[in-house]
């Protein structure tokens, strides 16, 4: 059977731009049609900003790669119109077990809070994830939205000319030139865009190699995340087992620092490892395998003139904690509404610097967490291993040691504490929904809160009266009155009698008050678009 | 506040039981025991200010750059 990732889903087609005597200028060009580039393009196109996506390939991700998608990215994907099919297809899980040698050290439950539309996590192969994004992209094109995806279009040279970027693009039919008012680089950890523009990408390099094997097998293992430290089948190293849809299982072996890559990737050697783990009687088919090492690093900033970096091109983390694709989706969620306001002339270019500030803050949080997980999973010194093993041994006997076990701190949404865009807070209101935080979903008694927000500035009113529409700085703010349902009360009121929240198009809170004050709202909006 | 004044009722007894616990252990086993002991005590103390003062006090002059 042909795999989805072996099929050209956006085969090369000649564009009129290739026959133009002068380079054609586009408002936005996205480089890279991975998860982040596609999300950026969908976000722009569904808000009627014309976008061209260039990709050097013509198909979805080869192999499963990113497989864990967290609640906040799923909410973003809902806003992009493609979250539901992903959740329907994805594998839901909430239990993780950690083993030391042959014994279980402890298990955890993500304990998803009720009153949210989306689950805490789903597992879904990156190729399926990208396929669903492409389905959404095709649906938008069918509606006449301005979105052009060009396969086998490889950017070979770049120059920032101050008020635009000029690109040289190589295709199967030769080279052509393009210009973009704004360029979004979503071309991965080895970003050719970053290299061509000569920007640094600094951080910590980790030497350990990991072997991924995606295996198709029919077994009745529970739908749980299993993580081993020092198991009998992989002595001195770690291993991970995690389920994906369609009977595909992700198996990840730590294999040490000095390895013979070619030998390790031979099917018979992978098979030997798998049999040691699964037993001789389990039948499986190897779908995809790969060896990776990783680094925890980021660019100094994510905006350089007319170029904006998003996803792995801007920051890279270890895979423990699922903070790669999940953070990239939060990048474009943060960026696109700002870029739209700048393109429409409603905000100054400097608003885009807040994209860099807020997402650098998010990247640092992810790098800190994934570096700590990595230090626990792959101890770098004798004493580091002694303490790691002591934690695991104690965890088998005592509850206190469980929070010290670090097999990955799973991705949580980023709150932009201290962002220059944040407005006033009213401290009496619940901490989790403070300025900078993403809205917490809630059953409003009339549908999910997050389904009623996003893509525009909004005022949420609970036991308060706000206008249906208000205009400031040429931007419309829509009013949304919410009944104080149990969820709304717990998440937005606390002990207070009333509250008013100003919310950004990316569903993050700008400011909040106990009562409505038009002037205060207008001032906060100016703040939120960088005109303070 | 880290208590650095004498606080053990029977210091010789405690010292002896500490050594006793390590009796007959290999270096690796002793290292593991010490690590478990530090983690147990740290959790019992809990207070971050005390723990960080203890870390500071434990770092000897020779090891400080």
Oligomeric category: heterodimer
Strand content of chain B: under 5%
Structural class of chain A: alpha+beta
Q: Considering DSSP H and I runs of 4 or more, what fraction of the residues of chain B is helical?
A: 55-70%
Taking pLDDT < 50 over at least 5 consecutive residues as the criterion, the unreliable ranges of chain B are none
Using the CA coordinates, give the radius of gyration of chain B.
14 Å
Round the mean pLDDT of chain B to the nearest integer and report it.
94
Largest sheet of chain B: none
For the largest beta-sheet of chain A, the strand count, sense and barrel status come to: 8 strands, mixed
Kindly estimate the percentage of residues of chain A that lie in beta strands according to DSSP: 25-35%
Provide key terms for this protein.
heterodimer, A: 532 residues, alpha+beta, FAD/NAD(P)-binding domain, D-Amino Acid Oxidase, Chain A, domain 2, Glutaredoxin, 8-stranded mixed β-sheet, 26 strands, 27% strand, B: 65 residues, mainly alpha
Describe the protein.
The complex is a heterodimer of chains A (532) and B (65). With 532 residues, chain A is an alpha+beta fold. Chain A has three domains: 25-89 and 123-199 and 304-367, FAD/NAD(P)-binding domain, CATH 3.50.50; 207-293, D-Amino Acid Oxidase, subunit A, domain 2 (D-Amino Acid Oxidase, Chain A, domain 2); 431-528, Glutaredoxin (3-Layer(aba) Sandwich), CATH 3.40.30.120. Helix content of chain A is 28%, strand content 27%. Chain A has helices spanning 35-46, 71-79, 83-89, 126-142, 192-196, 261-264, 267-278, 325-343, 351-377, 382-397, 486-493, 518-528; strands spanning 24-31, 51-54, 68-70, 91-92, 95-100, 103-109, 121-123, 147-150, 154-160, 165-171, 174-185, 202-205, 209-216, 225-229, 238-244, 248-256, 285-292, 295-298, 303-304, 307-309, 315-316, 457-462, 469-472, 475-482, 499-503, 509-513. In chain A, strands 1, 2, 8, 9, 10, 11, 19 and 20 form an eight-stranded mixed β-sheet that branches. A seven-stranded mixed β-sheet of chain A has the order 6-5-14-15-16-13-17. Chain B has a domain at 26-65. Helices cover 65% and strands 0% of the residues of chain B. Chain B is built from three helices and no strands. Chain B is globular. Chain B starts with 10 loop residues before the first helix and ends in a 7-residue tail after the last helix.
